[in-house]
Amino acid sequence: MRWLIVSLVTTIVISTCFCVRYEPNWASIDSRPLPGWYDDVKLGIFIHWGVFSVPSYSRKLMPAWFWLYLREMKLPDYIEFMEKNYRPGFTYADFAPQLTAEFFDANRWAEIFQSSGAEYIVFTAKHHEGYTNWPSKYSFNWNSMAVGPHKDIVGELAAAIKMNTSLHFGLYHSLFEWFNPLYLQDKANNYTTSYFVDRKTLPELYELINTYQPEVIWSDGDWEANSSYWKSTEFLAWLYNDSPVKDTVVTNDRWGKDSTCHHGGYLTCADRYQPGKLQKRKWENAMTIDGQAWGFRRDVTYSQFLSIHTLISTFVETVSCGGNMLMNVGPTKEGFIDPIFEERLWQFGEWMKVNGEAIRGTRPWKAQNDTINSNIWYTMKGSDVYAIVLEWPQGDTLTLGSPIPSTSTTINLLGYPDQFQYTTRPSGGIDIKIPPIPANKMPCQWVWSFVITGLMN
């Protein structure tokens, strides 16, 4: 009898799960609940890599946009760079054989990303240049198997991530391509035709999903045409209803210039999006360790890299306000992750070992930034509240304005064994007594998390 009851309940649950069908319109697509794993994990690693990684040149611009700056915008710096360093008549396509990837080791990449404390990655399957990092049937000789590495980069990385780590695997894909004749024809027709979408964009997306089964689809290249041209809702309805990742996949909002910051899965709105306050919908801060650019730059200077303190502080603010952070690294043309990127990821992982409790699986608290101390941001998990302190207090007192303690309130510092004493402030909030802690007893070097239990609010 018990078996029969369990069987009936299971059947009902399965039937319930599959009875929702999403229609190809934004009202229906937006009604899909975000799979819970994405809101729990908080930190992702973005990887920008393509033919643009060969010239790897940028004057405070985007290395991945090298071709556009050179061919269409004809920026003087880029023209001069080419004239000084390459033979006359050298084209952007001539860079592709130099994307050699001789040091590319998918397992090593996976190890580095896992050590960062991140729980998902998003790799550039195709940027606006149109070069695909997998042997797509729709890119002919402009792909990583035909020219350059002569490897299925997406496939090797997907296998390494899924087999050797706990990370969720995701892919970035550009809807458009700057100089594809089919796209330029549609653009000239004011997007009344869809030759490029039907023959390139959609076939590539279906190919990526069915072949590699990513759990994140990070769409981009959305700003020139509406989602109706891209047939985005039709694709997303298939993705959510019938694809092999329909129950776990998450998507962003860049599916057309009418959808960005309005429709889709989670919101990205703009690069380095940091609203500083709680948002109504789940969002993501896609940002860069190189503080000025996406992708590897040979002309980058040390001072242009964000410090680990800045990276963690940005992350804490993002999580406190309900967002995830997607932190970008740029490998070299040889497929090597530069030591400064690796160092930042390793430092981040060391911090997460101590403070991950205040991050993973948390939700925004009633307050985000403290009402008295702007260097404090809050998260919560169950009834526990975490006060994450960006700067260690100079004296023997840490003042918090937002918490209202009860008679059962306790305060601990993550990674430190002793409980902290506090007093209630007459005007509201609490003063935490900070004992003298030797440097070698501090739980971490940057940004500290106090866990507060038993608050009245």
TrEMBL record:
Q: Which SUPFAM superfamilies match?
A: (Trans)glycosidases (SSF51445)
* Domain Glycoside hydrolase family 29 N-terminal intervals: 21-357
Gene Ontology biological process terms, A to Z: fucose metabolic process; glycoside catabolic process
**Record keyword Signal present:** yes
Q: What class of enzyme is it?
A: hydrolase
Which InterPro entries does the entry link to?
Answer: FUC_metazoa-typ, Fucosidase_C, GH, Glyco_hydro_29, Glyco_hydro_29_N, Glyco_hydro_b
**GO MF term (any one):** alpha-L-fucosidase activity
Q: Which UniProt keywords apply?
A: Glycoprotein, Glycosidase, Hydrolase, Signal
- Top-level taxon in the UniProt lineage: Eukaryota
Q: What's its catalytic activity?
A: a neolactoside IV(2)-alpha-Fuc-nLc4Cer(d18:1(4E)) + H2O = a neolactoside nLc4Cer(d18:1(4E)) + L-fucose; a neolactoside IV(2)-alpha-Fuc-nLc4Cer(d18:0) + H2O = a neolactoside nLc4Cer(d18:0) + L-fucose
The Enzyme Commission number assigned here is 3.2.1.51
Cellular component terms per the entry's GO annotation: lysosome
Domain Alpha-L-fucosidase C-terminal, chain residue ranges per copy = 368-453
- In the record, which residues are listed under signal peptide? 1-19
- Family the entry assigns: Belongs to the glycosyl hydrolase 29 family.
Protein function: Alpha-L-fucosidase is responsible for hydrolyzing the alpha-1,6-linked fucose joined to the reducing-end N-acetylglucosamine of the carbohydrate moieties of glycoproteins.
On assembly, the entry states: Homotetramer.
Q: What PANTHER family does UniProt report for this protein, alphabetically?
A: ALPHA-L-FUCOSIDASE, ALPHA-L-FUCOSIDASE-RELATED
* The name this protein goes by in its record: alpha-L-fucosidase
User: What is the originating organism of this protein?
Assistant: Lottia gigantea (Giant owl limpet)
